[in-house]
Amino acid sequence: MTQLPSIRGRLARALVGWSIAWAVAVAGAVWLAVEHEVSELLDDTLQASADVLGGLLVRGDAPAADPREANGAEPETRFAWQVVGPDARLLLRSRHAPASPLHASATPGFSRTTEWRTYGRPLGADGRILYVAQTREERREAQAEITLSTALAALAIGLLGHLWLRRRVRQELLPLERLSDQLAGHEPLQAGASLGAPERDELQPVHAAIEELVRRLALRVARERAFTAHAAHSLRTPLAGIDTQLAVALRECPPELQPRLRRVREAAGRLQRVVAALLALFRSGAALQRQPVDLHQLMSQLTIHGIEWEVLGRGVIDADGDLLAAALLNLIDNSLRCGAHKLVVDVPSPGTLRIADDGPGVSHERRQELQAALDSQAYEGRTGLGLMLSDLVARSHGGALRLPPAERGFAVELQLGEP
Amino acid sequence: MRLLLIEDDDILGEGLRDFLRVEGHTVDWCRSLRETGAFRDEPYDALLVDWQLPDGSGLDWLRERRNRGDATPALMLTARDRLGDRIHGLDSGADDYLVKPFAPEELAARLRAVSRRRAGSAGPRRRFGDVEVDLTARCAFIDGQAADLTAREWQVLEALVLRAGRIVPKSDLEKLMLGFDSEIASNALEVHVSALRRKLGRDLVETVRGLGYRIGAP
């Protein structure tokens, strides 16, 4: 069966896509904001550091050029500084500062070199200038750390949002699942049967459409039932009259007419069986009355003439007795018309009724052709009424008709499915 | 047997009447419930009732008869074949239920079966001393030899056998023999009873003076 698109799947995929796009967009926005804000913050720090350091240098409290902590370890610092004279000669520098001046000429204010971001602060009027600097790598690292952590936070929020929304979608789709379950167990023609109130506003049109469908179905079934009841009376009584008149005529007519009248009576009998089967089938959709059927008893009640029959084993099957009788009558009629003399009925497995005759049977190709017609339910012009009716009977029980190969004669299996 | 047939369909009703007459039964045929009024107090061996009649329900008519204490065997003849209908029909007083279309031979067999059971025997044969009566084969045997009975003699014998042990009024037997509207010669019944005694033994049919005839011990 072709896999249909799933609402839940489509919504889930849409949410994943939305979450990723949201995370990327947020990360991009954060990157732009962070780059600008962090640059400003670091520049402010450079400037503030330059102001503090410059004040100390002007007062003569210059910090040591090679500061080490008490234990001899180098302090963690993100800054470097240089004091450059008016002749562009390096006068003083921190340990991590480059050994050559950061700028070839005095460059006050913010500026950058290939590796450094600097802030130049003139020290008094003697032309000296203090450069407080930070490597550009350090600045990028700081920006990247902030951006990454922000992006991860955005991604985590996106993921959590995705999971929450997915769960929410599942919950919101639950009424659809419950409606499906209700429909599966719904008996629309049963008195008082109801789907109940819709759980969601969007399901109201679905409920309304189903109720309208049920109303039309009930109306149609009621009409069909009325028609079947009338048809049953209108057909059964004249058929009984014909048979009774023929029975009387057979007793009263001269002997030379009796064979002809007997043939007429046989034809009337076949007509009775077909009518009975059609009537039974016509109303079978409404209420299948499945119960254990004793095949010995059923066959005895079918008034079978012209063919021997035998039921093997216990001969009990779970089925609607009337429908099964209709199918059997038509299959027996088929066997009779094909010249069979004996029928064997048995239940080879639970839910399967097998009828085999000793007639001429059909070729392998013809049997396959018939089976294909039954499988596709394309009966018209391909199968006789008997096989069609029997297949419909089997299908009304949830099964199908099978034509298994037979060593001799013709065999039919009514697979009636589980009760 | 004397039968009351209630069937509104002319073809079926006429066919059944003729078939059952050929079978040796006496049949009064009504086409409606209204017509049955004329037969209200007649003694019948069995009733054949169509469910759906032009002026009402045959089942209601039967139920009303049962309420009056009438135990005459009754067969419903109907086109209604649903399980619920069959159960309803049998629960309402029918002894058997035959769905149309049916073979008249089957109807005759069911009639015999119902009547036998009402007479207290499931099997087709009843024994009275040296005489054995086969209700299905419509034949009587004395000391194992089949007796040669006329149709009228068989009618009288069958009616007495089906009511074995009970006194059957002469008037009932006369009506049984010829039907409601027919006339019968005043001594015809005595002639047939006499013939039965001659062919099957003097002790088989007992005359209960002033009341009627009886077969079998009370």
Observed structural traits:
heterodimer, A: 419 residues, alpha+beta, 5-stranded antiparallel sheet, 5-stranded mixed sheet, 12 strands, 54% helix, 16% strand, B: 218 residues, alpha/beta, 4-stranded antiparallel sheet, 14 strands, 37% helix
Task: Give a topology summary.
The complex is a heterodimer of chains A (419) and B (218).
Chain A: H1 7-59, E1 80-84, E2 90-93, E3 109-112, E4 116-123, E5 128-135, H2 136-184, H3 204-252, H4 258-282, E6 290-294, H5 295-301, E7 308-311, E8 316-320, H6 321-337, E9 342-349, E10 352-357, H7 364-376, H8 385-396, E11 400-402, E12 411-415
Parallel strand pairs in A: 7-9
Antiparallel strand pairs in A: 1-2, 1-5, 3-4, 4-5, 6-8, 9-10, 10-12, 11-12
Helix pairs in contact in A: 1-2, 3-4, 4-6, 6-8
Chain B: E1 2-6, H1 10-22, E2 26-30, E3 46-50, E4 52-53, E5 56-57, H2 58-67, E6 74-78, H3 83-91, E7 96-99, H4 104-118, E8 125-128, E9 131-134, E10 139-142, E11 145-146, H5 151-162, E12 168-169, H6 170-178, H7 188-200, E13 205-208, E14 212-215
Helix pairs in contact in B: 5-7
Task: State the end-to-end distance of chain B.
Answer: 21 Å
Succession of helices and strands of chain A: HEEEEEHHHEHEEHEEHHEE
Give the N-terminus to C-terminus distance of chain A in angstroms: 25 Å
Oligomer: heterodimer
Quick summary:
The complex is a heterodimer of chains A (419) and B (218). Chain A is 54% helix and 16% strand. Chain A is built from eight helices and twelve strands.
Describe this structure in words.
The complex is a heterodimer of chains A (419) and B (218). The longest helix of chain A has 53 residues, at 7-59. In chain A, helix 1 packs antiparallel against helix 2, helix 3 (204-252) runs antiparallel to helix 4 and helix 4 (258-282) runs antiparallel to helix 6. Helix content of chain A is 54%, strand content 16%. Chain A has helices at 7-59, 136-184, 204-252, 258-282, 295-301, 321-337, 364-376, 385-396; strands at residues 80-84, 90-93, 109-112, 116-123, 128-135, 290-294, 308-311, 316-320, 342-349, 352-357, 400-402, 411-415. In chain A, strands 2-1-5-4-3 form a 5-stranded antiparallel beta sheet. A 5-stranded mixed beta sheet of chain A has the order 7-9-10-12-11. In chain A, strands 6-8 form a two-stranded antiparallel sheet. Helix content of chain B is 37%, strand content 24%. In chain B, helix 5 (151-162) packs across helix 7. The A-B interface holds A 232-233, 235-245, 247-248, 251-252, 269, 272, 275-276, 279-280, 289, 303, 322 and B 9-12, 14-16, 18-19, 22, 52, 77, 79-81, 83, 99-106.
